[in-house]
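Hey team,

Filing this mostly as a record. A colleague (T.K.) asked me to run one chain through the structure pipeline before their review meeting, and I want the input and output archived in the tracker in case anyone asks later how it was produced. No errors, nothing strange. Just documentation.

Input sequence:
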Amino acid sequence: MLNAMSKVQTMTDLLKKVDNLRLSFNQGDVIEGEVVAIKDKYALLDIGAKSEGILPSYELKGQPLELKQKLWVYVVTPEDKEGQILLSLQKAQVFKAWEELAKAEEKETNLEAQITGHNKGGITANILGLGGFVPFSHLINPPDPEWERPQFQSYVDKMRGTTIKVKVLELSEAENRIILSERGALEEKLLIQKQEALGKIKLGDVLEAEILSVLPYGLKVSLSGTEGLITSEEVAWETKAGILNDFSVSQKVKAKVIEVDVENNRLRLSLRQITKDPWDNLWDLFKKDQPLEAEVSRVTSFGVYVKLQGIEGMLPLSEFDENADIKIGQKLNVLVITIDKAAKRLELKLDAKN
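Output structure:
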C-alpha cells in the first residue's frame, strides 16, 4: 500500500512539473483567458498559470466585462517577482487583426471596412480596428478628378462612416501598411452584373451614354449598367486630327451599338452611325474630272489625304514634286479621277491650276 501511494505521489509531482513548464509564458504571447474577478482598476483572468493575469481597466476602453467571460489577451510582462502577469487586451486585438488580414490576403476573401476620411490619393478606412487605405482607382464610384474642390470635398465627406466590402491588396505589418480594394472585392459581382446588362443590349440600339474617360484611341463610356468603347474611327465620318479633344468626361452622348460580345464582356458603339453618311450623296456631289478645292488633312508615306464636302480623298505621292513641302491645312486644287462608293474611296489628282 505504501509503495502504491508513493507511486501516485510521484506521478502527481511529475505532472505538476510538466504542467508548470507548459504554462509558462513569454512577452508577446497571445493567449485566451477567463475573467475570474472584476475590480475597480483591473480584472483578473485565469490563464492557466500559477497566478492570475492582471488586465488594467484602461485596456477595456469602456467595454463591459462579465465573470467567466473569455478574452484573448497579450502578455506584456511575464510573471514578475511578485508572481504577477500583466496583460493587454488592445495589443491582442491588434495581433489578431493582423493575423486575420494575413489569412484574408492569402485566401483572397472579402472583409468589411468603414470609411474614416480621405487624403490626396484615396480614402482611409478602419478595418478590424486598424487603419487601411483604399486608392481612389480601387473604389467602385470614385470622385471625379475634374471636379472643383467644393464638389470633391462634399462627395468624400458623404462617404465618411459608410461601410464597404474590400479585398486586401498589400499588407506589411512592419511598415504598418494596409492597402485595400473595393473593386477587387466586388470584381466577380460586377462582372456578372455587366454580363446581365450586356445581354439586354441589342445590335443597332441607340442609347444614351456618359463619357467616363477620353483615351488616346477613343471614348470609354458608361451606359445601361455596363461600359463600352467608342473608337476614334467611330466618332465622326470626317477624319480630323485631335477630334477626341472635342469631348470631355461626364458629357452625355447618343451612340449606336455596333458590337455586343457577352462572353468577352465587350461592347462597341458608334457616334457617326447615328448621323447621315456623307458618302450616300457622293454621286450627286462629285463627277469624274470635276475640279474641286480641297484641304490637306493627313500626309502619309503613300499619299496625301484631303478633305472635301465632309469626306476624305487621296492624292498619290507621285502627284507631287520630290521636294514638295505639303502642310496640314494647305489648300489644293484637285480633279476627281475615281469614285468608289462601295469601298468609300475617292481618288484624286492635282489640277494643273496648282
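Quick notes for T.K.: Helices lie at 2-22, 89-107, 149-159, 182-199, 282-285. The chain has four domains: 20-92, 108-186, 200-274, 281-350.
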